[in-house]
Amino acid sequence: MILGKPLNEDLRLRPIHYQWAYDLYNQAVANTWFPHEIALGEDLEDFKKMSEDEKHAVSFLMSFFNPSELIVNRSLALGVYPYLKAPETHLYLAKQMWEEANHSMAFEYVLETFPLDREKIFDSHLNAPSIKAKEDFILGFTARMTEVSLDVNSLEGKKDFVRNLIAYNIVMEGIWFYSGFMVALSFRQKQQLKNFGSMIDWVVRDESLHLKFGINLILTILEENPEIATPEFANEIRELIIKGAEMENDYNRDLFPRGIQGINAEYTNQYVQYVTDRRLEELGFEPHYHTANPAQWMAVETDTLELVNFFEVQNTNYEVDNRAH
Ligand code: MN
Ligand code: FE
Fold first, then answer.
1. Whole-model pTM?
2. Looking at the annotation, which residues are catalytic?
3. What is the pLDDT of residues 247-279, one digit of tens each?
4. Residue 174: nearest ligand to its CA?
5. d(CA 254, CA 60)
6. Which of 25, 78, 208, 287 is a Cys-bridge partner for 92, taking CB atoms 3.0 to 4.6 Å apart?
7. Cα–Cα distance measured from residue 73 to residue 308, given in angstroms and rounded to the nearest whole number
8. CA of 70 to the centre of ligand 1 (A)
């Protein structure tokens, strides 16, 4: 069983029980990169020529991304690592946590390089309601993982573990981050901020492994604990993911109050819907939005993973009318 308080008997790596976790660890190590390998300073001229609305978009992206890297680490440290028994999962999580720290340092490098108002950026993450709502949503699930009443071996405790996992991994890393990456990379589409774009490419490569790890972990836990894989819980998870996707509407309005050349809030919301459908499918659900990808230029392999079908068996019981939307 992968889920449970790790004991001394669990400090033994071999034989490896969860090969996917071990393979992801090795792949993650092979992906190691450092922010200063990128000549971000070369983008400074582009940045200076950008409109105020374009600069605001970069600044508002940083307001969300910078603390979010630290939030993911909090979720992993408090809500995931302490409740997994397999050492290969701990190897992977240690590397992921370093990657989140590295992303945090990469965004620090952005703040040091571009003339951005660090105080204003930090202030927005605390006070912009659309960012605060997202952070509170994630941290609410993480907070549950540190309550003394949590028993991860109980039915409800197992569900709490999965809820936290869905929140930080599927909603935050799998939907909100991908939307932010698309916006960040949209500048390169119009020949701006190319080095910043390369940095985001490297972050996306890391995040795609974080998502693979999270999805594999969700699947494994549901396989090993079939008592929680009920139609009711499946439906709750699906609703949680859709709620997370809907929260992005307000955020995208604040990101693009007027829209900039080539992209606006509506376009970004459509991408959120497209990515959300992919995440739902990756978990074995039916898509909810049926929205086409407005950003065809985003390479297919960066925003979708191969399908895994977990909830498939239970799926037929809770079909909802997607098109009434
Ligand atoms: Mn990250
Ligand atoms: Fe991540």
1. 0.92
2. 109
3. 999 999 999 999 999 999 999 999 999 999 999
4. 2
5. 8
6. 25
7. 25
8. 8
